[in-house]
Amino acid sequence: MMLLSALLGPAKAPVASEEDVESAGGVYNIILFKRPAEGVATGTLMAVASEGDDRVKLESGQRCLVCLCDFEVAEVCRKLVKCKHLFHKECIDQWLTQGRNSCPLCRGQGVDEKEKPSTPTPDGTPANPAELSAN
User: Fold this and answer.
1) Helices (H) and strands (E) in the chain, counts
2) Structural domain contains residue 40
3) Among 49, 92, 109, 113, which residue carries the largest CB count within 10 Å?
4) Residue at 64 is within a domain
5) Other beta carbons within 10 Å of 106
6) Are strands 55-57 and 27-33 parallel, antiparallel or unpaired?
């Protein structure tokens, strides 16, 4: 068991790197919609993509499910690409890089992770046990 423990290392939830999170995109700015438009009432909060034309209408009282605070004008948020759930950028970035790379609401994958090269252990064997079977 000690050998297995040494090969596998500590059990840790999979987290994303900061580079993975930044490259995922999905950054939105929250604005107050002041002029009437089709399907959007005046005074409605909208999350507007910082890149592209995507907009997300925020329901009254909609909140970030990480910090449990309502979304407010001028805040920056991130929409997860796969499940489309919206969170404060600072909250979800910390969740994905320090907690777990999954959506706090639906538990779907948060962001795509780039494959990380494994470093060999001091005795020269690969740190990733899957690489042992590949040789």
Assistant:
1) 4, 5
2) yes
3) 92
4) yes
5) 12
6) unpaired
Asked if pLDDT for residue 12 goes beyond 90, the answer is: no
Placement of tokens 């909060």 in the chain: 45
Domain count, the chain: 1
On the question of pLDDT at 135 being above 60, the answer is: no
CB 45 within 8 A of CB 30: yes
Domain of residue 76, residue span: 13-103
pLDDT tens-digit map of 28-68: 999 998 876 666 666 889 999 999 999 999 998 899 999 99
Structure tokens that stand for 114 in this block? 């780039």
As a whole number, mean pLDDT of residues 61-89 equals 96
Task: Answer whether residue 24 is part of any domain.
Answer: yes
Q: Which residues contact 21 (CB under 8 A, 6 or more apart)?
A: 93, 96, 97, 110, 111
